[in-house]
Amino acid sequence: MLFGGDEWWFHGPPIEPGDRIRLERMLFDYKIAETKFAGPTMFARGDTTYIRQTGEVVARQRSTSIRYLAEEARKRAVFAQAEEPVWSAEELAALEERKRAYYATFLDLGHGRRTGVEVGQPLPARPIGPHTIATFTSEWRAFLMSVWGAFRDDGGPSSLYQSGWLPEMARDLEGAKRDPTLADGLYHGPSRGHVQVEYAQLVGMPRGYGYVASMGSWILDYLANWVGEHGWILHSDAKYRSPALTGDVTWLNGAVRDLVDGGCVAVVDVTMTNQRDEVLARATAEVRLPDA
Length: 292
Description:
With 292 residues, the chain is an alpha+beta fold. The protein has 6 helices and 9 strands; from the N terminus they run ββββααβααααββββ. It has helices at 70-76, 89-107, 133-142, 192-195, 197-202, 212-227, and strands at residues 2-10, 21-35, 39-52, 57-67, 122-128, 232-240, 250-260, 265-274, 279-288.
């Protein structure tokens, strides 16, 4: 299984330290389609509602999961020609400069308000990478469900612990009662393909690849950095097309397509590419601008 898209509606209130968030999940719809990557493929959309302990709905997420035949994906080897790039010291230094230039665009804003937004205005370019096994591992460990004590599986029918994984990608829940690593997801489980080449190739990838959950976070983070602390992301709809592989650099670029609601809301298009200008994802978001 891979993820193909995320649509978010953010209702508020902001999550505060000490809050307890519970999830309600349901299948929304599904369809079968023929894909270049793996032939017959199922695209299933499911809704996750995030609810604060007060009963308030914080956000709703509609995710698209892609279920496919791993054997067919290995046979077609769509991404097999994507060789891992080698970066020179000069190229890496130039990339770090671009990163610092991007950070300055929101650090210099500080606690100020984003004003003077116009239709056609570009957002600053953001580079991320080069991706490595270490960065993908760090991303996994940053997910709350990977932090011991921060997440509890409810054992319900929508649990992803039992979701039809290949035997090599499944958690050993019984064994984990003695050795927790057998169910941590990364050492053993569905996420091991992201950081272990053998299992990446088992599911049709050439080498370690990034988490779509991270790609979605990169987009939301990019928008939030731009609008600043006085703005608010209302809605975002992202479609994922290609993986971020080890060795690659991911670039985010955006532009204001429109101003609506009396100029208070910016409609922003975001494109995510790699160093080969291949499109990894596209997103459109509505962002409420700060009051003047």
